[in-house]
Each structure stands twice: as C-alpha cells, then as structure tokens.
Specification:
Layout: H1 2-17, E1 25-29, H2 31-35, H3 38-50, E2 54-58, H4 61-69, E3 75-78, H5 81-89, E4 97-109, H6 122-132, E5 136-138, H7 144-155, E6 168-170, H8 175-185, E7 188-192, H9 193-198, E8 205-209, E9 216-223, H10 234-244, H11 247-254, E10 257-258, E11 261-262, E12 265-266
Parallel strand pairs: 1-2, 1-3, 5-6, 5-7
Antiparallel strand pairs: 3-9, 4-7, 4-8, 4-9, 4-12, 10-11
Length: 269
C-alpha cells in the first residue's frame, strides 16, 4: 500500500499523458476536488446534464498549469491566482472564472508547542513555528497550497535558508500524504479545510489557526486558448463553464457537506 501511494503522482501524470476518449473533454483539477468528494458529486451531474464525457485529470495546481501550457487539456481548475493571471497573460488560457472557495487552516499538535493559537496572523503563526523550530510539513509539490504556504513564509520574512530540514520537511506529495506525515511526526502543516475535514488519520492534530484573510482559498476555472491550441474543444469547454456557474452547480457545491459542515462555497458570477 505504501509503495502504491508513492507511485500515485507518477500515475496521475501518466494518465494525463494518455489520449482522451473520443469526444471527451479533458479537464485538469486539483487533488482537493477529488479528495473532498466533490468530484464524485459534480462530475456525474455535469456529464448527465451536458451529454458528453469528461476525462478528469487529478493533479496539483502547478502540474495542471503545465498541462495547460502544453495544450494537453481543454480546461483546468486551480487555486493560485498569480499563476492563473500569468496563464491568461501568456495566452495559454482565455480567462479565469471564479467558481467556489474555502479556506486554508494551520493544523498542528494539540499541545501547540509553538503557540500559534495566540498568533495575530497566519504569517505570525509561521514565524512562531520557525522560532520554536517545531516540526512543519510542507507539501513541497508546487500545488496551490504549497504556493500559498511559500507566500506566507515570505510575508513572515523567513526565507529558505531559515527553514532547515531539521524541522522543515518538504515531502513533495499531495495533501493526503502530507497530512499523514504530519500526523506521524506530530507536526504543523498548512491544509485547505476540505482536505482536513475529510482526513481520517488526524491523530493528535487539530486546527490551531484560521480566519486570517490571507488564508482565503479561491478556485477558478480557466479554459485553454483554442487560438493557441487548435485541437482544444472550445465549445464543450464553454458549456462546462456555463454549467459550473449555473444554479444547478451552486446547489451541488453548497450542499456538499461533511457532518453538516460545508466544504466549499459557490461564488461564481
């Protein structure tokens, strides 16, 4: 089982390189979309309503952007606004359309050795972790979560050299794996709330810091530019975007809950 988990990112990239089934839309999405269970809700409904198949490629935000830049997908949905705006500026994507949001949270050991519960900002919480040299697990995989984490370290004024491997563990893996490692090490970790709520191996970890505006986590849909990649199915992509911004999608997204707690909030306009 452990070996299978280690091979998962490579397997996902292999799947992304395979030809799509004839007539299917190719859509790259973040791991949270699947791990939260939202994909299992939205995908069948979208395919039924739209009348065509959708090949869902589950990768990190950075990998999804790479697939878009190579013209290997018709659309992506990611959560890293600077990267999204760069893709539009480069002409890789035609535009970005906000669909839904949740938030990031800082999770850590219940006894909170770095005292981040008392921090006044997310960057301040990371500063306390660095000062205490408390174990911290980073996804280290160029995902949207990893990118936000690096922005927070920068805001805290703590560069790479000030994050030695003795306490800062970059694992180069998805959110589930990072959370499992954090649970095993009793370490701090940044995660989106949906991944945390659906994660089962919490151990002694709990949410210790949340609510900072810097932890807002917006997901956006980006159609790949058919003027750059002639094989992109712009018509099906436009129909999927219309569906994702519809009242049908709003109801499915807002009603997707775990133990009564919403995992995402629809905010498409």
């Amino acid at each position: 089982m452990r070996g299978a988990r280690r091979c998962l990112p490579a397997l996902l990239l292999l799947l992304a390189a395979l030809p799509a089934q004839a007539g299917n839309l190719r859509w790259a999405v973040t791991t949270t979309f699947r791990n939260s269970g939202l994909a299992a809700v939205l995908l069948p409904a979208a395919q039924e309503d739209l009348g065509f198949g959708i090949d869902l490629l589950v990768v990190g935000t950075g990998q999804a952007a790479g697939l878009a830049r190579a013209g290997d997908v018709d659309a992506i949905m990611i959560h890293a606004r600077p990267l999204e705006e760069a893709l539009v500026a480069e002409g890789v994507a035609t535009h970005r359309r906000e669909i839904m949001y949740n938030d990031f949270v800082l999770v850590g050991p219940r006894n909170d050795p770095a005292g981040i519960r008392e921090a006044d900002s997310a960057a301040g919480a990371l500063g306390r972790i660095a000062k205490a040299r408390a174990p911290f697990v980073s996804r280290g995989d160029d995902s949207g979560t990893h990118r936000r984490e690096l922005e927070l370290w920068q805001e805290a004024g703590i560069g790479t050299d000030a994050r030695p491997v003795a306490w800062y563990k970059a694992v180069g893996a998805g959110m589930g794996t990072a959370l499992n490692i954090a649970s095993g090490l009793n370490a701090y970790v940044l995660t989106d709330r949906a991944s945390w709520l659906t994660f089962r191996n919490k151990g002694a970890l709990e949410i210790l810091f949340s609510g900072d505006a810097a932890l807002f986590n917006q997901y956006a849909f980006l159609p790949v530019n058919p003027a750059r990649f002639a094989h992109v199915d712009a018509a099906k992509t436009a129909r999927l975007e219309e569906w994702l911004t519809s009242e049908r999608a709003r109801a499915l997204i807002d009603d997707h809950r775990l133990n009564g707690v919403a995992l995402f909030t629809f905010n498409a306009r």
